[in-house]
Amino acid sequence: MRFQRSLAFVFPRIRNKFQSQASRYFSSQLESEQRSSFGIAFDIDGVILRGRDPIGGSPQAMRRLYGDSGNLNVPFLFLTNGGGVPESKRANELSEQLGVKILPSQVLQGHSPFKSLSERYENQLIIAAGKGEPAVVMSEYGFKKVVSLDEYASLFENIDPLSEYKKWTPNQVLDRSVHPMNTVPRYDVSSEAVKAVFVVSDPVDWGRDIQVLCDVLRCGGLPGQENGHQPPLYFASDDLEYKAAFPTNRLGMGAFRIALEGVFNRVHHNPLEHVSFGKPNPVVFKNAEAMLRQLQPSYHSDSSKESGDSGLQSFKTLYMIGDNPSVDIKGARQAGHPWFSILTRTGVFQGKHNHAEFPADLVVDTVEEAVDYILGRECVS
Q1: CATH number assigned to the domain covering 112-276
Q2: How far apart (Å, rounded) are the C-alpha atoms in residues 47 and 213?
Q3: I want to staple 41 with a disulfide (CB 3.0 to 4.6 A). Which of 33, 79, 142, 167 is the partner?
Q4: How many Å apart are CA 91 and CA 150, to the nearest integer?
């Protein structure tokens, strides 16, 4: 089941955390006195990075959005379905990888909309699944009773019948010295029903995770009990494939969702219910547009005052630069004006011509070429 209506209220609450910080930064940093009439949203994997390495001249492309003194000239952000770490940490990583200052408010990840659900589940037990630091992410969003799926599974003896064969588990997944906050629950999860499950990032151990999630979801939130009502299940994205360091595409969260759904529907009398966030949902692009407007400097034009929008002018053009036609390009096309889609050949898409089903407004080889086109089209030197 796909659910979009709840996404509409996501962004206003996400942006508040960084809004004042971003406005001050961009107000002081922008060299031009006028607002930019355009903004840019960059996908990350397959466009900016492959694995952890910059590709397609991305560091050079990013620097072109800044002035000679390091002041930002063009509002931009990263719009990715990836995640697994807090936005602040991802911003620091990108800053180091690209050699420019990136703010947390410039990073919109697949799980960023989960923050809007924090009040609903604030004091209820939830599971956070996926690689990285999923429980830390959800804790920073305001969830107070969150446990990672790694830790949750470790608290139920024999829940994973293959655990004895996974020699890497004790050292890499359950190392309490590395993530003590993430791995030591402050409450008894063995007798409390899980109220919701959030797949924050790509799961690592598919076999175990499918087993544990089926136990939780078909037993009313407490493994080992009789069949009960399924707790809500949320996915940060629904990407079937994405581009990583390996030469060919890798399976993404959408593939895991298909696998979980296939198994669950065979072992339970009711079909799996779930909510998927992330691109290509048009609401994600509306949220990105709203954030880009917040990233503009605090300049009030006469027209904006008359319209009563507190000086937040609309963009003439917003550029989405992505590598996945069914995610980045499809999403920008569905969002409509003012989005302009640019497809690169450095990631999922590597075709000679435009994509047949989801054609972009422009196809280029690299992100550097895309930025060069944008600045030329917008008459920015």
Answers
A1: 3.40.50.1000
A2: 33
A3: 79
A4: 25
Write out residues in the chain with pLDDT < 50, as ranges: 1-15, 17, 24, 26-34, 170-184, 298-310
Domains 38-110+279-296+315-378 and 112-276 share a fold: yes
Q: What is the CA radius of gyration of the chain?
A: 21
d(CA 222, CA 132): 25
Q: Is 160 within 8 Å of 168 (Cβ atoms)?
A: no
pLDDT per position as a tens digit, 84-136: 999 999 999 999 999 999 999 999 999 999 999 999 999 999 999 999 999 99
By the 8 A CB rule, do 134 and 150 touch?
Answer: no
Identity of the amino acid at 167 = K
Long-range contacts of 306-314 (CB under 8 A, 24+ apart): 313/35, 314/338
**Cβ burial, residue 247 (10 Å; 0-12/13-18/19+):** exposed
Residue pLDDT, tens place only, 4-16 = 333 433 444 444 5
Q: How far apart are CA 265 and CA 255, in angstroms?
A: 15
- Give this prediction's pTM: 0.82
User: Within 13 Å, how many C-alpha atoms sit on residue 10's CB side?
Assistant: 27
How far apart, in whole angstroms, are the C-alpha atoms of residue 292 and residue 331? 17
Alpha helix locations (H) across 30-148?
A: 58-63, 87-98, 134-140
Q: What are the start-end ranges of the E strands in the chain?
A: 38-42, 49-50, 53-54, 76-79, 107-108, 126-129, 146-148, 196-199, 233-235, 241-242, 250-251, 275-276, 317-322, 339-344, 362-364
The amino acid sitting at 229 is H
Neighbours of 259 (CB within 10 A): 16
The single residue listed with the structure tokens 């037993």 is 219
Among the four given CATH numbers 3.40.1190.10, 3.40.50.1000, 3.55.30.10, 3.60.21.10, the one describing domain 38-110+279-296+315-378: 3.40.50.1000
